[in-house]
Amino acid sequence: MPIELYAFPPSPRAFKVIVVANHLGIETTLRLVDIPGGAMRTPEYVALNPNMRMPTMKDGDFVLWESNAIMQYLAAQRPESGLLPTDERGRLDVTRWQFWDLAHWDTACATFIFEHLVKKLLGVGEPDQAALAKGADSFHRAARVLDGQLKGKKYVTGDKLTLADFALAPPLNYVEAAHLPLEAYGEIRRWYASLSALPAWQMTLAQAAPPAAAA
Ligand SMILES: N[C@@H](CCC(=O)N[C@@H](CS)C(=O)NCC(=O)O)C(=O)O
Fold first, then answer.
1. Which residues line ligand 1 (CB under 6 A)?
2. Which of 85, 198, 84, 97 is nearest to 146 (CA)?
3. What is the per-residue pLDDT across 1-16, written as a single tens digit (0 to 9) for each?
């Protein structure tokens, strides 16, 4: 039985796991979780993921939540891909960026995505300018770090594509729609362009049907 992914594909956190599965050619069954419809508050879903958030993965009787952990599980199915290096230093370099993603980058991007895109889609009011100003501080602080890291490198950890790239780039699918202030970060824009050209990225965008692309 294929791995089941409970996900709402337009979300960057869902995109992260779906794009890795697509890149690795791992067959998955998408269990669509309709966030606006409250699908994550059912007792069946809460039993899988008490956070009432997505994505969640189920492989037989093994259940895993947190997108970056799911990405590692998928990469471990194809160790030869190098997406999660097996040597300790290489692995920690990649996981370091996945931790940084959760601590800094994901939250900074999420503020813009929520204020400019999600609120509009849900029709729940105008962007909160105070939240955006605070978000901009966090965004620029993190973007400076990522842009500096990418100087002289094809990918985040070097010349090889890894989970670090797949973890960090998905929010950038919404640069325009979420007004992410990326103008000053040429390295990030160059890196995102190369990732978004990957066949798996294009395949996942088609599955995700992001509102920006649909608009
Ligand atoms: N750190 C978690 C974050 C999961 C998360 O916040 N998911 C959001 C979607 S973008 C969600 O399910 N939100 C629904 C809600 O808060 O009710 C991960 O990366 O998996």
1. 11, 13, 35, 52-55, 66-67, 102
2. 97
3. 899 999 999 999 999 9
